[in-house]
Amino acid sequence: MTGEPILPRSYSPATVQREYARVAWFYDLWGRWTEDRALQRLLQLADVHDGMRLLEVAVGTGRLFARLVARNPTGRNEGIDLSADMLARARRRLARRAPPASYRLQEASAYALPFEAATFDILVNTFMLDLLPAEDYPRLLAEFARVLKPGGTLALAYFSYGTRRVHRFWYWLARHFPTLLTSCRPIRLESYLEQAGFRVLHQEEISQNTFPSAVLTAQRGV
Ligand SMILES: C[S@@+](CC[C@H](N)C(=O)[O-])C[C@H]1O[C@@H](n2cnc3c(N)ncnc32)[C@H](O)[C@@H]1O
Questions:
Q1: From the CB of 65, is ligand 1 less than 6 Å away?
Q2: pLDDT tens-digit profile of 60-77?
Q3: Is the CB of 79 inside a 6 Å radius of any atom of ligand 1?
């Protein structure tokens, strides 16, 4: 699909917290059915290795964060999310899988990351930008760029338009029944990334049970 506009969305922290309190209990089932393949590919592309300074923004239930920490056991692993309910699940998952000293999880907003400039080698963010207003992307990407070191890696996965006819179903669903998808909808990020000073290194489309995702890595300008 080409040319369809990014569907408008509004944003308030209270709405995000309410929506994810509602869906936290089944989010992993949804993810396993539609998004896990994209996360697996992101793990291959991101080249996370031990000793890195890593931040995942919007960790959700921690399904990717747990795998990132396993690849970076003696590095620095920071995870943030706005939803206390999603974070509670992430905390339980990580407590089972990783030593407490190997990571930190905290409630915070992607709009104001609680970290100093140029801290991280890699910033990972999956299936968050697709629920936030497109007008906010310049501000959010500037905040990602701020905390990344020059030359650092941004690794993203998000709901995309897809390439096949069947993918149009998801655009239709996002347009007419947004609450079924917690307001997520297909997005494109290339032009926003370029404007924010990122160079796209790799981008590919993944389809899982007809759900279309994009996986993308980009480099912060030096
Ligand atoms: C669709 S879920 C994806 C969770 C996880 N990244 C994954 O792929 O499983 C979206 C997540 O983004 C979080 N979120 C939404 N707006 C946020 C913001 N402004 N700052 C931080 N997290 C946010 C939600 O609380 C939720 O956990």
A1: no
A2: 999 999 999 999 999 999
A3: no
